[in-house]
Amino acid sequence: MENNSEKSAVNAAQFSAYPTVSQLNVEKSKQEYLEMFWTDQRREMENVIDFKSNLLLPPNRIKKIMKTDKDVRMIAAESPVLLAKACELFIQELTLRSWLNAQENHRRILKKDDVTDVIMQTDNLDFLVDDATHDGSTPSVVPFNVAGGSNGQNGSDV
Predict the structure, then answer these.
(1) C-alpha–C-alpha distance, residues 30 and 67, integer Å
(2) In a domain, 88, yes or no
(3) How far apart are CA 100 and CA 36, in angstroms?
(4) CATH no. for residue 81?
(5) What's the total number of domains in the chain?
(6) Phi and psi for 146 in degrees, rounded to 5?
C-alpha cells in the first residue's frame, strides 16, 4: 500500500512540472492577442502622417522630464515625440498583458497584482523588478510614484 501512494505522489510531482492542455491553450491565446496588438499598432503607425497630433502623452511634458537631467543641454524636436510614442506602446502592452492575466484568473477587474504578476513572469520586464533585497526574500516590483498613489509620495516631483 505504501508503494502505491509513493508512486502516485511521484507521478503527481512529475506531472505538475508539465503544463496542462488548458495552460498551453491560454499561453497560445495570450500570444495571439499580443501578435494582434502589435500588428494593429504597426498598421496604425504606417498610416499616420503626423505622430505629434495622435499622441496620448504630451511631448512637452516628456521634454521637461528629459531636461531634469543636468547632462542634457539640447533636445531634438523628434525625441520627445518618439519617446512619448514608445511610452504609450509600453503602457498599452503592459495593460494588455495584465488584462489577460486578470481574465486567466476569471476576473473582470484589473488589480495591481495582475501588473505585478506580469512583470515577474515576463523576461523583458526584468528592469522593473527590484532585486536589491537584502534579507534574501523574493524580489519585488519597483514601486511607482504616482500622483494620488498609496505609497506616501505625490507625483509632483517629476
Answers:
(1) 38
(2) yes
(3) 13
(4) 1.10.20.10
(5) 1
(6) -120, 140
Residue ranges, the chain, pLDDT below 50: 1-2, 5-16, 19, 146-158
Q: What pLDDT is recorded for position 132?
A: 58
Do the domain assignments include residue 70? yes
What are the two backbone dihedrals, phi and then psi, of residue 140, each rounded to the nearest 5 degrees? -115, 170
The DSSP code for 129 is E
**Rounded distance, CA 65 to CA 157, Å?**
10
In a domain, 94, yes or no: yes
pLDDT in tens, 126-156: 888 876 555 555 566 666 554 444 444 444 4
Residue 132 is assigned to a structural domain of this protein: no
What is d(CA 103, CA 34) in angstroms, rounded to the nearest whole number?
14
The pTM is what? 0.67
